[in-house]
Design goal:
Helices cover 31% and strands 25% of the residues. The protein is built from 14 helices and 19 strands. Bound molecules: cytidine-5'-triphosphate.
Length: 450
């Protein structure tokens, strides 16, 4: 019996897939189809796959062509499969020509002509494309990253840009249309990504929602819990998606870390320490772009793991800050201590103070350690008293999580459902805004002498 094997994602099964499987089967007597797992696809940068693995397996099975279906989970698995299943022929579409010649050592490699004019990517792209307008301040670090990351997301396209700072060098060499006003941009798009200065976000998000546009807004989306709740209420009433743009929330490693904590791997969480510091070295501090309080720039990212793992009902919070020498209304360093009935958390934020920017989640059985800079996390460790039980975890992170965040946003918009809630709950977003508000009111704030 001649055994043939072929591999693919088989997302939104189409005629090209069926023809490929038929021809592969005709090369022998028995066909094995390897279907990529969702994790493996993410690892190899294929982030736009629409259907979960079970649905893709079901669709391939229903064609009745394969004799056996297996799941491809890791790089290098093909060699193992060929040996363990006793495969004679490896067949794959001609788009992979030459890439699998190394398998000739184990079996015969056949490249079959790809069917012209159809692909999963094309099907996904044809589905109503969401026109995204990017608005705010182009001088902000992440503004342009969102513009370019949109290019990796099927079903999204950047309609144009509106920047309050038209003089900024970042937008002079743009391929995208530059709008003169926010209103004009809103008219031309279905959804917006908002990254203006913190105090303008609420107003711009509100305007977008009232105009019937979905919004993905840089965090904090508002500077008080009340404003935040109002925005979510408008979004709900108008059946729109409003999403808080904290990219770390969408990274695979951070999500796996949360699941491990939830499943009791480190016991009961007693203490969290999250630090985010970066010196504004080389940057012109006289520039308005760097005149934010650390709680507005770093606060949301650092507060997120605290509220997600210990909850939003802290009983008290204390703020200790050091002010900027030249601008007494701006802080250069902020430490926050949260008290819970049976846990505590400490956050250090700094624009003019440097510290190790790591994340530690301490529990009754062990702790999780995420090295600096933890918010770009692709790696973490679970550590125990008995170090032989320690484990290390690594998950590929492309585009700093922005790509995964945009994919979730675009899917949420398309499916008109808050898929984002699985990553960043509304109550976490609200609590971030509320905690920033408390600080601005001066409650429990200690100012260090200079
Ligand atoms: N294939 C083909 N003809 C097409 C599309 C795919 O012969 N028009 C083949 C591929 O070469 C591969 C198999 O079908 O051997 C599974 O491909 P897969 O990557 O799942 O499908 P694509 O449509 O190429 O997906 P995408 O657009 O996401 O890359």
């Amino acid at each position: 019996m001649v055994k043939v094997i072929t591999y693919g994602t088989y997302d939104m099964l189409h005629y090209g897939h069926i023809r490929l499987m038929e021809r592969a089967k005709a090369l022998g007597d028995y066909l094995i189809v390897g279907i990529t797992s969702s994790d493996y696809d993410k690892y190899r940068g294929k982030i736009n796959v629409e259907q979960p693995l079970v649905e893709r397996i079901k669709a391939v099975k229903e064609t009745g062509i394969p004799d056996e279906i297996i799941v491809e989970e890791y790089e290098g698995q093909k060699i193992n499969d060929i040996i363990s299943y006793g495969v004679d022929i490896f067949a794959i579409g001609s788009d992979w020509k030459g890439k699998f010649d190394y398998l000739n050592e184990y079996c015969k490699v056949v490249y079959l002509d790809r069917t012209e004019g159809i692909s999963s990517s094309e099907i996904r792209t044809k589905e109503n494309k969401i026109r995204i307008g990017v608005a705010g301040d182009a001088a902000q670090e992440e503004f342009m990253k969102y513009v370019s990351e949109c290019g990796y997301v099927n079903g999204a396209e950047v309609t144009g840009i509106y920047s309050e700072e038209t003089a900024s060098p970042e937008i002079t060499n743009l391929d995208h249309k530059l709008f003169d006003s926010y209103d004009e941009l809103l008219e031309a798009c279905d959804a917006v990504y908002l990254a203006p200065r913190p105090e303008k976000r609420y107003e711009m998000a509100r305007k977008a929602l009232l105009a019937g546009k979905h919004a993905l807004c840089k965090s904090p989306i508002a500077l008080s819990g009340d404003q935040c709740r109002e925005l979510f209420k408008i979004a709900e009433d108008k059946h729109l998606i409003l999403m808080d743009a904290i990219k770390t929330a969408y990274s695979t490693a951070y999500n796996r870390l949360r699941l491990l904590v939830k499943s009791g791997k480190i016991g009961k969480v007693i203490s969290i320490s999250a630090n985010c510091t970066s010196l504004a070295e080389g940057k012109d501090i006289g520039d308005f772009r760097y005149q934010w309080n650390t709680i507005q720039s770093w606060g949301p990212i650092a507060m997120m793991p605290v509220f997600q793992m210990l909850g939003t009902d802290y009983t008290d919070v204390r703020y200790i800050c050091r002010k900027n020498e030249n601008r007494p209304n701006i802080d250069a360093f902020l430490e926050m201590d949260f008290l819970y009935p049976s846990a505590t958390a400490n956050i250090k934020l700094g624009n003019e103070v440097k510290s190790e920017s790591d994340l530690i989640v301490a529990g009754t059985k062990g702790y999780i350690y995420v090295p600096s800079p933890w918010w770009k996390t692709d790696y973490f460790e679970i550590r125990y008293e008995d170090t032989s039980k320690n484990s290390r975890f690594f998950y590929q992170l492309d585009g700093e999580g922005i790509r995964f965040e945009l994919v979730t946003f675009v899917r949420s918009v398309r499916e008109a459902a808050y898929l984002s809630d699985a990553h960043l709950e509304k109550k976490t977003t609200e609590c971030i805004s509320e905690t920033i508000h408390r600080y601005s009111e001066g409650k429990n704030v200690i100012v260090l002498e200079r």
